[in-house]
Structures are given as C-alpha cells and as structure tokens.
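Example record

One chain of 322 residues, shown exactly as stored in the release files.
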Amino acid sequence: MGGRIEDSHTDRVRSVVDDEVAPAKSAIAASWRRCVTLYGLDPDQRRPPEILTETQLHEARQEIEPLVRMAHASLDRLFAAVADLGCCVLLTNKDGVPVEQRGTSAEETIFRNWGLRLGAVWSEAREGTNGIGTCLAEGRALTIHRDQHFHTRNTGLSCTVAPIYDHEGRLAAALDVSGCRESLTEGLIGLVAVAVTDAARAIEALNFRQFFSDARILLSPDAERNSAALLAVDRHDLVIGATRSARLALGICDARIAAQLPASDLLADAGAEAELIEAERGAIRRALARANGNVSAAARLLGVSRATLHRKLNRLALSQTH
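Predicted structure tokens for this chain:
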C-alpha cells in the first residue's frame, strides 16, 4: 500500500511538472517545477533534512537575535492557540533554518523525526516544496497541505507559514505552524493561517518599534487593514524608517528615505494629517512635562531651537509656560 501511495504522488508530481501550462495556473505546480528544473530534486528522495552544527545554529540565531527576542511573547501566544491541534511553532531565519521552537514534550520525538527541529534546513532548494521554504522563496504567506509537498516523505505534514520582514522591509524570517495529525482539516488550517499572519505582523511591528525606539512611530493610512504598516519619523517630521507594509502601501523606498522624505507628503489625507499633528503635539507635551514647562529646556530635549519650538507651540495651540 505504501509503495502505491508513493508511486501515485511521484507520478502526479512528474505529470504536473511536464505540463507546460500548470505552473502558470498554480503556485504549487510552479514550485514543483522549480524543484525539478532549478534544484534537481527527486520527489522520492529519502535523505533526511540537513541539520546544522551547534556552532552554525548559534551563528544563524545571532544574525536575527533582536528579532528573536521581540518574537518570544508572540510565539508563546501562537503556540497556546494551536497546541491542542497537535502543532508545533517554528521561527526560522531567511534561509529556512528554525532558530526558535514551541511544542509539547510529548510530541517532540514525532516532530524531530519529521525534521521539524532547531537547526534543520527547510529551504525549498533543499527540501522541495514545503511551507517554510516556499514561503521564503515567494515572500508570501501560504499553506502547504499534505500532498502539496514535493517530497513523498513530507506528504503527512501540513505547514502554514507567514514571512517576517525586518525594520528595513527586507525578508528576515518565517513563522511556521506545522502538524501531522489527520484531524488538522483544511477548515482548521484557515483559522491557523489567520493566527500565523497576525503573529508575524505583531513581531514585525515590535521589532520595528524597538529598532526606532527614539523616533515617533506613526500608522500609515491603511493601518486599519494592516497593523504592521508603520513609519518612523524624526523630530523634523522626516521619515527615517518604514515597514515593508508601509513601503508597499505608500511607495516608499530607501532612496526616498535617504532624500529626506517629509511624513506629511505621505499622509496627505485629512485623517492621516490629523494623526501626524496629534503625534507632534504629544511629543511636545512630553518634552514640556520633562522640562517642567521650561520652553528652552524642552527645545533642547527635542533637538530644535527655542524659536522653532515657539512657532510649533503657536501652530499647535499649546500653552507656553516660560
């Protein structure tokens, strides 16, 4: 029976790969085509996942250590939501190597046998079509469910993954929820996908806020649809950073930021402009409070001249003390 299942999956993969039209219609078919033509993989390949040495794993983790620290609470919450489904949670680097994991001790052996463990290499080039590797290859959230995997030995897994982008909008990591229980139906996977995407965005936002901890953080106009669409603004109201979501929504790139991009140019609608004004008002109020109402001292805290601060106070209708 096992042999017939393997033959069936292998035949299906080869049939799809040979179909010139399929890759244009299906993301899975496109990935299977990459596995064969680009990576030279065989769906019947039996080699276990490559495992990094302790030193290599330590180096991989150190490269994204600030992001890993920011992710801890989100990983814990996500695992609490999916633990009863028999799933584990993995945070990987951009090469598809898990550097942080959440799971129950009772199922640790099961997941280790599947290769779902710290230090395993789950890149698409190594493991074929799989949640982690294909998510990173395509830079988007997705689920690879059972026989959508390229390798026959992985067809018992269901993996739902979302990419995580760093403070510069570059692909930095992936957040994965994987399980192998048959009770993990496509309906449940839909709910898991929402939780994974929300957790990934929360990690992006926390990491961004931490990196730009000395700046004012503004929500971009599409923030209601995407809580990770954030801008970092300096005391001159110039954009000094933007998350990937904000970059895509507002057409921001490194060159525009380097050219001293005013936040007001991006937040042109009335609601966003009001938010910018309110953020500026709040920053001045905090500086005045720290300076016990002394305008000169507050100006020094804000890094502007006393005259500039007076103009801002008048424009924003804020009271002046002395």
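Notes: The mean pLDDT is 89.
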